[in-house]
Amino acid sequence: MLGATSKGKAVGGNFHPMAASFWCNQPIGSDPERPFTGSGREPLLPPHLLQPPQNNGHHHHHNNKLIITGPSRLSGHVPISGSKNSALSILAATLCCSGTSKISNVPNLSDTRTMVSILSSMGAEIEASDSEILINTDGVGTVEPDSEEIRKFRGGFFVIGPLVARFGEAVVALPGGCDIGARPVDLYVRGLRALGAVVELRDGKVHAKAANGRGLVGGRFQLQFPSVGATETLMMAACLADGVTLLSNVAKEPEVVGLAQFLNDCGACIEGAGSDKLVIKGKSWLHGSRCIIAPDRIEAGTFMLAAAITRSCILMSPVIPSHMSCLVDKLKAAGCKIRQWSHDTLEVSAISADVGESLKGFDVKTGPFPGFPTDIQPQTMVLLTTCNGTSSVEESIFENRMGHASELLKLGARIKVCGSTALVYGKDKRSGLCGSCVVAKDLRGGMSLVLAGLAAEGTTEISGVQHIDRGYHNLDLKLKFLGADVKRLMAPHLAFPL
């Protein structure tokens, strides 16, 4: 049985989850004194932009606003940060491992800081410097992470799998996050039961325990829907289960492949990552390992759409083009020019569409990877408002992911939402986006308002910025460096110079 430790206390001593200066956005292996420059070009960002503002995390305060004056013409090179979704699952996976894991290229976001805080609340020792985080979970002394932190976002719930697998039990609060649909945890619960856990919901917390009193056992489980979070959680759990586990209809997302790679590097035996079936041979223990977080395909997709929406040309790296082939195909069909400069550098240009033919609208239906990502659906909707013709956007993953449409209407977009489908009426001579005051209600929907503000005539004021800060590292600074007129308005008592 685990001994008790004080909850919420970071055992590492020299790390505070909100200490933003520990992270910067260059990949591991580059000179920490010099910004990452991609393929030998000039530095991507001036050094003062590489360091987040030193305000002890208060720039996620609810009174924050972004003021964007458009229309913008963007140009230059933007560095793509490490993947938020990949970092969250890999940070949770360190709970499966004895010894120290070294995770590099972790983006400095409120979500990643919350995950670090969750690990600290259970007694993990954490040190961070530059783009690296060292995590040792040998000192974990409680199987109940801080409930307040878990409720901040959905990714915190991932820890239930590794906790039950390694320690035989877990007590985890129901997760929070963006209000974009039910996203129930029943897949997680039924999957853990298939691996020999007794799982109950009491007082807003999920209590899970190995039925045999020792640990999980291998089993078979078919997911009703290829949920990324459930796939990752059950994969982590199965790594330490006694025997062989077969998971079918699993998610094929690059983040799942990245997690499987990390766990295999730690001594796990996972086969089939990237397909719809996983075969996992359980091991009695795993050791810590090193991992470099892959570039964020959703951030890269967002900047690709920013280039198209503002009829600009942007160069971006590092990216993994195969992670974004679905969006690349749609943008090419619309009339954008996309050029691959090197294995990890893309150029997206829509400049000719401004002077000659307009971009053509297209239809989108979101789906699990390799389908069109739900996380760039709201941003794509903004592009379609600037294209010729009528387009349709169908959301098949989250039932409430159309909340941004009502805010886009305030900016002059012409969108008709019917259930999970939206008809987007493109640009004509009488219409165009105009600045207004809007509210970000969730992460990706909030980002769609930023993109709309870049294309809109006049000034757009966006509140609810804390949602956007969950997923985009140094967003306003990156946009400024590309030439956008973006200001962050702080609550008066929190103001600090950039």
Automatic annotation (TrEMBL):
InterPro entries assigned: Enolpyruvate_Tfrase_dom (IPR001986), Enolpyruvate_Tfrase_sf (IPR036968), MurA_subfamily (IPR050068), RNA3'P_cycl/enolpyr_Trfase_a/b (IPR013792), UDP_GlcNAc_COvinyl_MurA (IPR005750)
Family annotation (CDD domains): UdpNAET
UniProt pathway annotation: Cell wall biogenesis; peptidoglycan biosynthesis
Keywords: Cell cycle, Cell division, Cell shape, Cell wall biogenesis/degradation, Cytoplasm, Peptidoglycan synthesis, Transferase
Region (Disordered): 31-65
GO CC terms, sorted: cytoplasm
Catalytic activity field: phosphoenolpyruvate + UDP-N-acetyl-alpha-D-glucosamine = UDP-N-acetyl-3-O-(1-carboxyvinyl)-alpha-D-glucosamine + phosphate
GO BP annotations listed: cell division; cell wall organization; regulation of cell shape; UDP-N-acetylgalactosamine biosynthetic process
A GO term for molecular function: UDP-N-acetylglucosamine 1-carboxyvinyltransferase activity
Pfam families tied to this protein: EPSP_synthase (PF00275)
Domain annotation Enolpyruvate transferase: ranges: 69-475
Localization of this protein: Cytoplasm
Source species, domain of life: Eukaryota
Entry EC number(s): 2.5.1.7
Keyword Transferase carried by entry: yes
SUPFAM superfamilies xref list: EPT/RTPC-like
Main EC class the enzyme belongs to: transferase
Membership in a protein family: Belongs to the EPSP synthase family. MurA subfamily.
HAMAP family: MurA
The protein, known as: UDP-N-acetylglucosamine 1-carboxyvinyltransferase
Organism annotation: Rhamnella rubrinervis
High-level lineage: Eukaryota, Viridiplantae, Streptophyta, Embryophyta, Tracheophyta
